[in-house]
């Protein structure tokens, strides 16, 4: 893993919003003409979209949520369906938790299922996060998406899970949060993955990410994982 400053100098805007804007602008610079780009979801990605639009690149984008799709289209970005795509050049997305060794929790906005598919399809998956997202170890809650079929049974087998008072995902899944203890994220991820009725969980292993761009108060650190 290598680390390098992604911005030359600190700016006076060290608020959380300023941090989100800086990491998003740093990530936008990684996108090049002709690329097929996966767009994440959330308040950090909201800063990525105008930064990308300003660059006026010839790119095609696929969004992980209706919210991002509408915002990107309104800015003039070319957003289309996932369709038969089997690889993106790059995807850029936010995170709720980021550990020093690259484990993530995503899905605070309930988009983690689509986000994980887009990340897994991308040659380069760039995580952008403000400094509040940096954690030593992952902790609950872990967002989960569940099939409506047999929901009570799935919830009973998961244990320690609370349904979220939000609409179903665009794919019809029920959104909940898992509050079980996380001693080892790989073990928790396997337990969740192996629970029948669970569509996807919000733990992203380090192998999914290639880059993490993390704000550090007044600066930005860009780590390359592979
Ligand atoms: O479902 C939402 C996504 O995983 C977001 O990328 C994540 O919750 C981070 O969102 P934000 O940038 O708003 O903190």
TrEMBL record:
GO terms under cellular component: cytosol
EC category: isomerase
Superkingdom of origin organism: Bacteria
GO molecular function: ribose-5-phosphate isomerase activity
EC number: 5.3.1.6
Xref: SUPFAM superfamilies: D-ribose-5-phosphate isomerase (RpiA), lid domain (SSF75445), NagB/RpiA/CoA transferase-like (SSF100950)
GO biological process terms held by the UniProt record: D-ribose metabolic process; pentose-phosphate shunt, non-oxidative branch
Classification via SMART domains: DeoRC
Reactions this protein catalyses: aldehydo-D-ribose 5-phosphate = D-ribulose 5-phosphate
UniProt keyword terms in alphabetical order: Isomerase
UniProt key word Protein biosynthesis: no
Record region (Disordered): 1-20
CDD domains to which the protein is assigned, alphabetical: RPI_A
Name of this protein: Ribose 5-phosphate isomerase A
Organism: Nakamurella panacisegetis
